[in-house]
């Protein structure tokens, strides 16, 4: 689906993600000056009434429960082609899955998250609903005045508890769903969600999802030093025999809370060790509120490669860069010479080592980006010739962006360098980028450009 301009009064900014049944867009409510997420039923399901019913049922459940631990639905409407959409809370900090990918969580933080996820599922159970698809990517994170807020989301498979004996098809995500969920016609109850909570707990604690059932390796064997009570609780939640699991989400959550509050809980790993960021650079990064980060999975042909969204609010510029490059984030970076001559202000540099960005001996990998007001013909590299040879020039048209890319597949024998000057169709503002990478990956350069957004 190409990016629409608006859904009703909600102005679309960019796509946040898509799944089998729906696409989610970031939009702006200009009337209330507030960002929202808009979930739209996918075009290929537009005429499937059972899927439409499931979609609207999700909106009804979220609206009726109206909990601080669940994504809120503010509005529901229908597009001219008959597809429904719902206007929801925008979770600006991504998902728990994104958080796990960044590295091991301190135990106290993992238990806090697990407690709040459990509270959200408890609300659903009290409402008479089974979630059936609890997993880290379905738990979102939002900034709030009191800190990070957990929001349980994606109730596309949710069903009323009193209909549990009537399920005719398997539903859920392998690795997180209970054994009984994989059996069509299985008699489910809230303990299926308890199994999923156990799987999420296992991954929060160890960084890895549990094995296929029966799960025999306790989290403490992967992460030594855990309280025995935590190992016992997680393994009991993951029991194949549901009679051995905690009775419901509240029981599970209460036990997690008790473990978290115990005076002998192992000390959390210091945050500066977890993120392994040089201490002398921390202050500048924390002070730069213009940088917004949210890691997301990207399919770029390289297993395990993730992208991190970075933003420079002074320009309204956002784009995704490989997370492994994003060791330093610098806003207000001096504009490259030719970009500066064309009227560009300071830009954003995301790199493995900012001081080595221009080095011909041991270059850093990363992305530099800035905005040039108006339409300009920029040279191949605004910092001069970085690679001492002629570049390969190609025209780019992603649908959202068009312009010129100059590639140096081998730059000084130890890296690849690309520069680009692109603009959105009909827009005068030009985005100038430089991308330095260890191998020649024009597809990655194009992907970075395609993720860019202005506004």
Report what the structure shows.
The chain is an alpha+beta fold and 455 residues long. It folds into three domains: 6-88, 2-Layer Sandwich (Phosphorylase Kinase, domain 1); 96-261, Transferase(Phosphotransferase), domain 1 (Orthogonal Bundle); 289-454, Protein Transport Mog1p, Chain A (3-Layer(aba) Sandwich). The chain is 25% helix and 26% strand. It is built from eleven helices and 21 strands. Strands 14-15-16-20-19-18-17 form a seven-stranded antiparallel β-sheet. β17 (392-397) and β18 form a beta hairpin. The longest helix has 20 residues, at 107-126. The model is unreliable at 268-304 (pLDDT under 50). Keywords: ATP-binding, Kinase, Nucleotide-binding, Serine/threonine-protein kinase, Transferase. This is non-specific serine/threonine protein kinase. One of its GO terms (molecular function) is ATP binding. Its EC number is 2.7.11.1. Residues 386-397 have a biased composition (Basic and acidic residues).
Strand content: 25-35%
The order of strands across the largest sheet is 14-15-16-20-19-18-17
What is the distance, rounded to the nearest whole angstrom, between the alpha carbons of the first and last residues?
21 Å
Percent range of helical residues = 25-40%
Evaluate the radius of gyration: 24 Å
Our count of domains comes out at 3
CATH topology of the largest domain: Transferase(Phosphotransferase), domain 1
Looking at the overall shape, the CATH architecture of the largest domain is Orthogonal Bundle
Q: Average pLDDT across residues?
A: 83
Helix count from the secondary structure assignment: 11
CATH superfamily of the largest domain: Transferase(Phosphotransferase) domain 1
- CATH C-level class of the largest domain: Mainly Alpha
The biggest beta sheet is recorded as:
7 strands, antiparallel
Question: What is the approximate shape?
Answer: globular
Unreliable runs, pLDDT <50, ≥5 residues? Answer: 268-304
């Amino acid at each position: 689906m190409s990016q629409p301009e608006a859904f009703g009064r909600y102005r679309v900014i960019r796509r946040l993600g898509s799944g089998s049944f729906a696409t989610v867009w970031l939009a702006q409510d200009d009337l209330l000056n507030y960002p929202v997420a808009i979930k739209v039923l996918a075009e290929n399901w537009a005429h499937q009434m059972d899927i439409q019913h499931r979609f609207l049922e999700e909106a009804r459940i979220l609206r009726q429960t109206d909990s601080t631990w669940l994504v809120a639905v503010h509005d529901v409407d229908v597009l001219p082609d008959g597809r429904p959409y719902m206007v929801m809370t925008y979770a600006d900090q991504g998902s728990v899955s994104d958080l796990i990918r960044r590295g091991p969580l301190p135990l106290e933080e993992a238990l806090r998250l697990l407690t709040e996820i459990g509270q959200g599922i408890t609300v659903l159970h009290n409402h008479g609903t089974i979630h059936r698809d609890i997993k880290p990517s379905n738990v979102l994170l939002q900034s709030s005045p009191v800190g990070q807020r957990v929001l349980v989301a994606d109730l596309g498979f949710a069903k009323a508890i009193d209909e549990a004996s009537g399920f005719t098809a398997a539903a859920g995500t392998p690795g997180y769903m209970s054994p009984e969920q994989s059996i069509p016609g299985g008699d489910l109850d809230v303990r299926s969600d308890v199994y999923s909570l156990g799987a999420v707990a296992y991954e929060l604690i160890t960084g890895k999802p549990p094995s296929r059932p029966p799960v025999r390796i306790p989290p403490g064997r992967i992460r030594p030093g855990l309280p025995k009570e935590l190992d016992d609780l997680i393994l009991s939640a993951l029991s194949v025999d549901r009679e051995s699991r905690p009775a419901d989400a509240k029981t599970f959550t209460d036990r997690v809370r008790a473990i978290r509050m115990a005076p002998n809980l192992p000390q959390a790993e210091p945050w500066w060790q977890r993120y392994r960021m040089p201490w002398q650079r921390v202050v500048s990064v924390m002070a730069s509120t213009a940088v917004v980060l949210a890691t997301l999975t990207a399919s770029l042909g390289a297993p395990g490669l993730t992208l991190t969204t970075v933003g420079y609010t002074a320009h309204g510029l956002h784009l995704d860069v490989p997370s492994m490059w994003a060791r330093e984030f610098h806003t207000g970076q001096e504009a490259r010479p030719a970009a500066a001559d064309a009227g560009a202000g300071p830009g954003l540099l995301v790199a493995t080592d900012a001081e080595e960005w221009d080095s011909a001996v041991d270059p850093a990998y990363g992305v530099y980006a800035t905005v040039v007001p108006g339409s300009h013909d920029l040279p191949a590299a605004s910092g001069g010739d970085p690679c001492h040879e002629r570049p390969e020039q190609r025209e780019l048209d992603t649908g959202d962006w068009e312009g010129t890319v100059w590639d140096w597949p081998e730059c000084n024998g130890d890296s690849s360098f690309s520069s680009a000057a692109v603009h959105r169709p009909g827009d005068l503002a030009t985005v100038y980028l430089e991308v330095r990478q260890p191998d020649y990956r024009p597809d990655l350069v194009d992907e970075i450009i395609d993720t860019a957004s202005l506004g």
